[in-house]
Specification:
Blueprint (H helix, E strand, L loop, with lengths): L11 E5 L6 H4 L5 E6 L1 H16 L11 E4 L13 H7 L8 E6 L7 H11 L6 E7 L10 H9 L3 E9 L4 E8 L3 H10 L9 E2 L3 H4 L10 E6 L10 E5 L2 E7 L5 E5 L13 E2 L5 E2 L6 E2 L5 E3 L22 E2 L1 E4 L2 E6 L12 E2 L4 E10 L3 H9 L2 H7 L4 H5 L11 E6 L4 E6 L5 E7 L3 E5 L5 E10 L2 E11 L2 H7 L4 H33 L12 H18 L37 E2 L2 E2 L27 H10 L14 H13 L2 H12 L5 H10 L1
Parallel strand pairs: 1-2, 1-4, 2-3, 4-5
Antiparallel strand pairs: 5-7, 6-7, 8-20, 9-19, 10-11, 11-12, 12-17, 13-14, 14-15, 15-16, 18-19, 21-27, 22-23, 23-24, 24-25, 25-26, 26-27, 28-29
Helix pairs in contact: 8-13, 14-15, 15-16
């Protein structure tokens, strides 16, 4: 773009408040530099720069920057010239591509002067780029891209890249003039920034939410975390009721197959990974390797180890396209050769610390989607029951203060609102089964609501904590990551149990007794209404329910036309008790492995809350505001939290609890205060 302005033309760079930065010296022959700073600073900087130049061997070839003494607060003084006039008077050519750079300068400038500077400089030149690592207040007071984009739109500027930290106190933003050659070149180099209220976006996501294109097919579904599919193990699960297995081949690459051996239809989930890294069927020992290809048939192997004949192609597994992407394992529900990796969610580079929680529910997936789209219930049902909820003022007396506004971005439909404490909150539905939450400082939650079978759901919940200096320092303490993850898991289990009880009753009233999903609308119910309309159109467009009925002769997925067609589960009396003989896992009565149809095993709260029950019992016994304990003033929650953590963290928890009890410290509030401080 610079070359198009003629030979010998160099770009211009304007540095605001750079102090004694040396970039204008190091890159002096690559651009014409202008440094804007306080007059006293400019004088001192000039003496140093002249001294440096005079001590260089090629001093005659060095062009020092043009130094401009200007107090940015003077921008609001009508008796003083605009900064753009001062820059042009000093030799800045508005027709030449120019980069304006602010770095931690605007914090010290009065709000009125900041807005005058933006109006003045943002309109200077048609080939200008503006790079800020700075505050955008008072124009933008939150951390969200959509607000930055809206602000820049007022000046006809295109946001090329954006990030933020510390609740929007600092923004990292690059913007340039819309429809200019420079903007086109920069956007091509950095890829176009999607219009998304959240850091994560889905290409053409909003198109899939149009009713005429709604479908449960041709989508990526997250089905597991990578740590759940270990090398040397078989992971069994279901998606929409269809049995599936995942394993890693000898190179560590993922393979996803229908849970059926092409030989005699034995469940592959009963098999194992053999010494060659193959998924070995338990029935006849057929071995499947890379991409599900058949690699070994014991009856077809000669004594020397060679195969008698090449197995037919139909001996290979019926596989799905599988990708490990952004810390999740995704399956493409659609034709294998039509899998479109561009439709996987993409997250902009933000500094966060992810914490994973797995939740198992015995209710249908749709109830969990609507629950997580529903903001007002946080105030009433949960009522500050765990520290993060309490820190955001999600309590009943504040429910009338919540504000929600409907939005639509490139990825989906959602709500942008504020909590009672004025903190912004975003909720978005990414079809067909993801709900995303966003908050300040790049905090986000993503609920991957996996429909295992009718009335059975697994949620893969990822919470991304802002990784600022405080959290980074805390995580450097040995064991701190384990404690933080267990703490967040316990909070999630508690919230899930509160939701689960209501959803069970709701599902019974709707599914069994014929009640409506939504009869009378209230604040926030427009998003839930949209979800159910989308679901209704998706079923109509697909011509079948999303749930599995049965395979056809070629093992192609067969969708159920009605709920009576959905594959039925049965119970089996032989239970795998994981017994060992001579160090080998042989199962009950010497059986190699027992069969279970209800994969994946229900291992997590709220449905299986054995791991969390001791903490609940202690909470009931000691917390003075627990039902029935209102008169037990002598008991505080400090002991409860410490003993509960002892189960997760070892004996140190007991000592912590005793210390807290002696000092009358509420340990439950310590992590609450820590998280609030981090936020």
């Amino acid at each position: 773009v610079v070359d198009s302005h003629g030979s010998g033309v160099k770009p211009q760079i304007v540095l605001f408040g750079a102090g004694y930065d040396t970039r204008s010296l190091r890159y002096n022959r690559k651009a014409d530099f202008f440094e804007v700073d306080l007059p006293d600073v400019v004088d001192g900087k000039g003496r140093l720069q002249e001294y440096w130049k005079n001590n260089q061997n090629n001093s005659e070839e060095i062009d020092l920057p043009t130094r401009i003494g200007y107090n940015l607060n003077d921008a609001m003084d009508e008796d003083k010239p605009n900064l753009s006039y001062v820059l042009k008077d000093a030799g800045l050519n508005p027709d030449v591509p120019t980069l304006f750079v602010w770095e931690a300068v605007l914090f010290y400038v009065k709000p009125e002067a900041v807005m005058e500077l933006f109006s003045d400089i943002f309109n200077l030149g048609d080939n200008s780029v503006y790079c800020l690592v700075d505050s955008l207040k008072p124009a933008v007071t939150t951390s969200f891209l959509h607000e930055v984009r809206s602000f820049m739109d007022d000046y006809q500027l295109e946001v090329i890249d954006h990030n933020s930290r510390w609740g929007g106190a600092v923004h990292f933003v690059a913007a340039s003039r819309k429809d200019s050659d420079l903007t086109a070149a920069l956007s091509k180099k950095s890829e176009e920034l999607p219009f998304s209220y959240l850091a994560t976006s889905v290409e053409e996501g909003i198109q899939s939410q149009k009713f005429d294109s709604a479908s449960f097919n041709d989508h990526w579904y997250a089905v597991a975390y990578p740590w759940q599919v270990k090398e040397g193990e078989v992971f069994a699960t279901r998606l929409w009721g269809e049995p599936l297995v995942l394993y890693r081949d000898s190179d560590g690459n993922l393979v996803c197959s229908k849970d059926v051996c092409p030989h005699r239809s034995a469940p592959l989930s009963m098999g194992k990974i053999n010494d060659e890294g193959q998924l070995e069927c338990m029935y006849h020992g057929w071995g499947f390797g890379k991409d599900g290809n058949i690699e070994s048939i014991p009856t077809q192997i000669r004594d020397g180890g060679s195969s008698k004949r090449s197995p037919p192609k139909r001996s290979c597994l019926k596989t799905y396209c599988v990708e490990e992407h952004e810390g999740l394992i995704w399956i493409w529900r659609g034709e294998l050769l039509e899998a479109d990796a561009s439709k996987l969610p993409k997250t902009r580079d933000v500094s966060t610390y992810p914490i994973d929680t797995v939740l198992d529910y015995n209710v249908d997936w749709q109830y969990i989607v609507e629950n997580n789209l529903d903001s007002p219930h946080l105030f009433w049902l949960h009522n500050g029951s765990v520290p993060p909820v309490r820190s955001l003022n999600f309590v009943r007396e504040k429910v009338n203060q919540v504000k929600l506004q409907y939005f639509r971005d490139d990825s989906g439909h959602g709500h942008y609102g504020q909590t009672a404490g004025g903190k912004p909150k975003i909720v978005r539905f990414d079809s067909p089964n993801i709900v995303r939450h966003g908050g300040t400082s790049s905090f986000s939650e993503e609920f991957h609501i996996v429909p295992i079978a009718p009335g059975r759901t697994r949620v893969l919940l990822r919470q991304n904590l802002p990784k600022g200096p405080i959290l980074t320092t805390a995580l450097s303490i040995p064991g701190a990551d384990f404690v933080l993850e267990k703490l967040v898991n316990l909070w999630n289990y508690h919230i899930a149990l509160e939701d689960y009880s209501v959803m069970q009753g709701q599902a019974h009233n709707v599914d069994d007794l014929g009640a409506n999903h939504l009869s009378v609308g209230d604040l926030g119910d427009d998003l839930i209404k949209h979800f159910y309309k989308w679901k209704e159109h998706a079923v109509a467009n697909d011509g079948a329910l999303p749930f599995f009925s049965k395979w056809d002769s070629s093992f192609k997925f067969g969708g159920a036309q009605q709920m009576n067609d959905v594959v039925q589960e049965s119970s089996y009396s032989v239970v795998d008790d994981q017994s060992t003989v001579n160090g080998e896992n042989v199962g009950t009565y010497g059986i190699l492995k027992s069969y279970t149809q209800q994969t994946p095993i229900v291992s997590y709260p709220p449905n299986n809350y054995k791991m969390y029950k001791p903490l609940l019992d202690l909470d009931q016994a000691f917390r003075k505001d627990a039902p029935g304990n209102e008169e037990k003033e002598e008991n505080g929650p400090g002991l409860v939290f410490g003993v509960g953590f002892a189960a997760a963290c070892g004996g140190a928890g007991v000592a912590t609890a005793r210390a807290a009890e002696a000092l009358d410290i509420n340990l439950l509030d310590l992590p609450h205060n820590l998280i609030a401080f981090i936020n």
